[in-house]
Amino acid sequence: MKNHILALLLLVLTSLCADAYRRVPPKKLTKNITWEITEDGVLKVSGKGKIPYVYSDRHYWRTEIYGFPNSIRSIEIGEGITSIGMNAFRSNVDESKTSTANRVSLKLPSTLKEIDWCAFDDLKIVELVIPESVTKINFGAFKGSLSQKTLIIPKNVIACGPVAFSGCDIDELIIEGDLKIETKCFSNNHALEKVVIKGSLTKASKKHNIFFDGCSDFM
User: What average pLDDT does this structure show over 136-141?
Assistant: First the structure.
């Protein structure tokens, strides 16, 4: 009897391990874009054009993955993608009910131009590298997503929306070009110690705290 119970437990554990990263074969996202999840837990989005808006937690990969993104380890967005729509990769994990927050690696393409509202809101990213091709980062795009030593805003980025990087943990911020920033764009980055501006900040005034509100170490 004891052997039967042990065998059953082993079978259950093996099944759980096998399903840790459940493969999802390629599926249509739009006419020109497909997505899939590989056996090693990589969410791949391929094709050309814009990843569309998401208005619900039950769209695309969210219908396939319980507790997105804790069920994947990496996101790879392929060359040819030009824009990432609102809420596309927004986390729907309730961290108050989880013991740890899974961090995922993120690869963005050199064809990317725009990152829309809350596209990666609360997605815990290992380290963000913004491609040189990006020109606009909108409202809340990476809010609460980052914990890294240095974040570089490339010279071609001309606009960052409100709270685009709010609530992150960034030690050093480097702005390569002429950037228009909106209210509380980098607010509540409590780890922020250094800001290097190689170009200029438009709409900036002596009251920098409107943009860096809550960054006490920097202020």
Answer: 96
